[in-house]
Design brief:
CATH architecture: Up-down Bundle
CATH topology: Four Helix Bundle (Hemerythrin (Met), subunit A)
Structural class: mainly alpha
Oligomer: single chain
Keywords: Electron transport, Heme, Iron, Metal-binding, Signal, Transport
Protein name: Cytochrome C556
Number of helices: 6
Helix content: over 70%
GO biological process, one term: electron transport chain
GO cellular component, one term: periplasmic space
CATH class: Mainly Alpha
InterPro entries: Cyt_c/b562, Cyt_c_II, Cyt_c_prime
Order of helices and strands: HHHHHH
Amino acid sequence: MIRFALAATALVLGFSAVMAQSDPIAERKATMKTIGGATGLGAKIAKGEEAFDAAKVQGIFKTYVDSGKKMETLFPDSSKTGDTTAGPKIWEDQANFRAAQVKFESDAAAAATATTDLASFRTAFGTVTKNCAACHETYRIKK
């Protein structure tokens, strides 16, 4: 009886994990919106429209790192088509696409360490967001 209960629990947990990944396009969009929100806040800070706040800045870079790691799993072959602007080059050039994701995450982690004031934030933020622009230029379908 215990084996049956453990097996049933494992099946339910496995099914839940599959269901969470069942719509990678929607998850990608949500993750990109999270990144966009962090970038919007960062832009306001960099422009001086919002005061430099070390905690907020660290939150921006943490969002980038966490979202970058999450994005690694959100481009399965089953998500090549649908309501997406992900370009075919993602699947044609997986090695470079993955390298771009790793660079984004690593630059964001380095930026978090390097940022101590507004001037260093502006430099670090610019470096990280250049990754976004480069990836979108190469791997995104333009509307």
